[in-house]
Amino acid sequence: MQLSTPHRCHAWSVWSYRLRLHKPLAVLGHHTTHREGWIVGRRDPLSNQWNYGEVAPLPSFHGMSMDTVYADIIRVFKDGRPPETALVQTVLDIWNCPKNSGSLRINTLLDSVEDIGGGTPIIKLKLGRHTLSEDMNRFGHLQKIHPNIIWRLDCNKQWTLEDLHQFWTICDPSRIEYIEDPLRDPYQMIHVSDIPLALDESLSDYTELLDLKSVVAAIIKPTLHKNWQNILERYAVRGVISSTFEGSLGIWGLAQLAMQHLNGETHGLGTLDWFAEECVQPTLTEDNDRLRIPKDPPNVKFSQIQWEDGV
Length: 311
Hints:
This protein is of the alpha/beta class and 311 residues long. 23% of the residues lie in helices and 30% in strands. α3 crosses α7.
């Protein structure tokens, strides 16, 4: 591999990166201590300025490898074909989106009890990784020691309908916004009437469940859901933009989409503290429950990435 700057290319280019994480990341049974992805760049022929975007597949979550996504990048930028993956489509959507500055409300992803800060009113908590009784004991304790927190709970389709109803008996309904994808069989949500639910990974295959009164939100990962704008137009539910552990460049782009389409919502973009290093500067900053978003994206540090292809 050889290092490069964008000036080596006239129209577009692709670079790879591999960044250390502060703590192991567990996604659908896959554990990693690093985050890998692609940086894509394209020169705007009108302004002569380069636009950059982050394309970072999680193989266990997106169901595709780095090589598969790279092939899609080449089809789009070299051959002029439309994207086949939501990952690449998201970059194009971000580039076509009007750029804004400001701040977004975000929820924090809880990794341990000690992670909860005094100024973070909305917390997302992962459930379903332990036994139901362990989850109930832990969450009951968290509700007791953090009485001002509003919770977003995420089960990743680990429970039965009976598990869900049993867990709800220890919950304070006034402090829970929703439970994401609680059931192994999402269609069983039709039997839930008094528990607020949200669709996340089920959104692709069970979109019709958004018509249920108990389903109050759609957790939209633009890098996973290629036609998410249509979902917002079709269904009368809250939309929450969520990341798949992108770095500052990717989060900046998702924040631009959130400000354009769902400004005023609290979004699931509070994951930057997992990164021990980044390949852009300045990095974005989180201020308790808010993410500061500049109008211009972070600058790519080409000394930390490897040039792969381009013209």
